[in-house]
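As promised in the previous annual report, we have extended the structural survey to additional targets. Below is the entry for histidine kinase.
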Amino acid sequence: TRSPGRWASPPPWRWSAPRCSRRRPRPPCCGRCSGWARRRTWLGEGHLDTRLQVSGSDELANLSHTFNRAAERLQKRVAELSAREASSRRFVADMSHELRTPLTAITAVTEVLEEEADALDPMIAPAVQLVVSETRRLNDLVENLMEVTRFDAGTARLVLDDVDVADQVTACIDARAWLDAVELDAARGIVARLDPRRLDVILANLIGNALKHGGSPVRVSVLPEGEDLLIKVRDHGPGIPEDVLPHVFDRFYKASASRPRSEGSGLGLSIAMENAHIHGGDISAANSPEGGAVFTLRLPMDASRLASIEDRKVKERNGEPGKDDEGAEGGRRYEGGAP
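The corresponding structure token record, generated without further manual editing, is:
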């Protein structure tokens, strides 16, 4: 046992000044501070016209000036980028329309030449065939560019109808003479309410891409899954490199930098994705464990529920106020205390 007087005084390392156990209460925040978090959130959500009303000359006023200057510079920069993007889109749209008229005349001439190919000089026939194929390629490119501009401008619309999916896939394959290269696994009687023309565009791009890069046979399977429709397109090629997978739906993306020019326009899969999105669906790409690439198209069985949403978006793009815009005239500006 320790003797009572052994430690008459605490050791030196224990000596310390007495501390106050109570903390000073924090002063309540003023009214100017209480709305900062909300205004910062508004700016982060894209309301770049958010500003703070500055009063006084203290540290908070300086911080408010800094906030306003940063928001103003950000708003100006975004407006410049938006204007450049809009100008680029107008240029592509105008160029596509300007090319279409002379291209129609060129296409008519090449079709006549193709019909008379057997009567042409054997030395000339290959050149004629080259002109015909390149004209078709240019036609496809112009049509794809025009389709892209419609999506960018927000003018693409759904024309819905009841579609027997198996019949639609068969018609797509038959129209392009792919019957011998494509295997179809689809039960009859699966009916979905979709835009048949846009569904044909999606299928043609997915199947055509599989035939071009994966080779035949290409297997197309159709199956319903709850309220969704799944269409899988699988090829038996080498698959897609892992570094390419995240970019397969990008516009003008070329998997090989050594082949910048190919038969395609680089827009097919991007257009397929846009057509899936306008239905409220999506497309994913992956490599099958058995080999080859698999593209999975997921669409709603009934896309008509999106009609009202699309109408509202059109009104917003045209500047017509929606429910959330009532009383939101002009920019957001807040004065005084907490909003």
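The radius of gyration is 32 Å. The CA atoms of residues 59 and 314 lie 45 Å apart. These points will be discussed at the next consortium meeting with the crystallography subgroup.
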